[in-house]
Amino acid sequence: MTDPNAQNAARPTGKRQLHGASPVSAQSYEDKRTERREPEGEDSPGGGVTKFPAEVAGEMRKVIWPTGSQMVSYTLIVFAFLIVLTALVWSVDWATSWVVEQAFVR
Predict the structure, then answer these.
(1) Nearest residue to 54 via CA among 46, 64, 66
(2) Can you tell me the distance from the alpha carbon of 74 to that of 32, in angstroms, rounded to the nearest whole number?
(3) Percentage of residues in the chain with pLDDT exceeding 70?
(4) How many Å apart are CA 90 and CA 97, to the nearest integer?
C-alpha cells in the first residue's frame, strides 16, 4: 500500500484539495496576475471594422483544410447517414399511419 504523504504521491488536480495546503499561494497568484489595460485611442471593442478582414485572413491561415480524399469520405459518410435517417423517419411514419388506419378506419 502506498503512503499518501509520500514525496511523489498523486495529488488531486481539481479546485478542492483532499488534504494539506493548497499548492497555490496568495503571493504566487498575485505575481501571475496581469493588470488589464484598455487600449489607448480605441473606442470600439475588437479593433473595429477595418481590422476585421486582416483578422479573418489570419484565422484562415490557421485552418487545417481536409484533403480531397478526406472530403470524399466525409461526404459519403454524410450521405449514408442521411439515407439511414430518412429510412428511419419514413418507416416510423409508415408504421404510425398503419396503426392509425387499423385503429380508426374500421
Answers:
(1) 46
(2) 44
(3) 60
(4) 11
Which pTM was predicted? 0.44
CA pair distance 19, 97, nearest whole angstrom = 63
Q: What is the DSSP letter of 6?
A: S
Distance, in Å, from the CA atom of 10 to the CA atom of 40, rounded to the nearest integer, reads: 47
Reduce the secondary structure of 32-71 to three states and give it as a string: HCCCCCCCCCCCCHHHCCCCHHHHHHHHHHHCCCCCHHHH
CA separation for the pair 75, 54 (Å, rounded)? 31
Residue 76 CA to residue 72 CA, distance in Å, equals: 6
Contact criterion met (CB below 8 Å) for 47 and 55: yes
